[in-house]
Amino acid sequence: MTIKLLGIGKTDDKTLQNLTDVYIKRLQFYNKFEIELIPDLKKVKNLDENQQKQKEGELILNKISTSDFVVLLDENGKQLSSVGFSEFIQKRFNSGLKQVIFIIGGPYGFSEEVYNRADTKISLSKMTFSHQMVRLFFTEQLYRAFTILKNEPYHHR
Ligand SMILES: C[S@@+](CC[C@H](N)C(=O)[O-])C[C@H]1O[C@@H](n2cnc3c(N)ncnc32)[C@H](O)[C@@H]1O
């Protein structure tokens, strides 16, 4: 099963990118993990909030296959412990899926169409983080989940 993280816009902060890269690299030992970044929309100043969400939503939906299990990272989603998240990942493996795709929204979140396509929503906190922070926090939590599933001494319960 491939695990993909889909986001919008590149990370312009080198420090955050370098930290995220540490976990991306570590994840390769456990599973096929890919990050795909949709380029930022051009001329966003001419778009209102809804138009931007709509356009980003179309780009996101174009990247999803019918067989994908789609998880939105959303502050209003379900909150899980790290052990709970590792169980969530294990359940996806057990279902024999080809790909699970986690999606980080744009500055205003997701369009209705993207919400409708989603299989579930997961929150990393009730607080709102920047999309670049979410890339780092998510990759670390996914790495942690694999170490929990493998009984490795990274996570202390
Ligand atoms: C700047 S936030 C957008 C916030 C916006 N208020 C919204 O309605 O989603 C950009 C993206 O980062 C992700 N994000 C931010 N905080 C999060 C959290 N606490 N848990 C999960 N994802 C989060 C979401 O994917 C969100 O769409």
TrEMBL record:
Gene Ontology terms for molecular function: rRNA (pseudouridine-N3-)-methyltransferase activity
Entry EC no(s): 2.1.1.177
Predominant subcellular localization, coarse grouping: cytoplasm
Classification via Gene3D superfamilies: 3.40.1280.10
Family matches, as SUPFAM superfamilies: alpha/beta knot
Enzyme class: transferase
A Gene Ontology cellular-component term: cytoplasm
Localization in the cell: Cytoplasm
InterPro entries on file: Alpha/beta_knot_MTases, RlmH-like, tRNA_m1G_MTases_N
Alphabetized UniProt keyword annotations: Cytoplasm, Methyltransferase, rRNA processing, S-adenosyl-L-methionine, Transferase
Positions bound to S-adenosyl-L-methionine: 73, 105, 124-129
Classification via CDD domains: RlmH-like
A Pfam match: SPOUT_MTase
The reaction(s) this protein catalyses: pseudouridine(1915) in 23S rRNA + S-adenosyl-L-methionine = N(3)-methylpseudouridine(1915) in 23S rRNA + S-adenosyl-L-homocysteine + H(+)
Function according to Swiss-Prot or TrEMBL: Specifically methylates the pseudouridine at position 1915 (m3Psi1915) in 23S rRNA.
Family assignment from sequence similarity: Belongs to the RNA methyltransferase RlmH family.
Subunit structure: Homodimer.
Protein name stated in the entry: Ribosomal RNA large subunit methyltransferase H
Organism: Gillisia hiemivivida
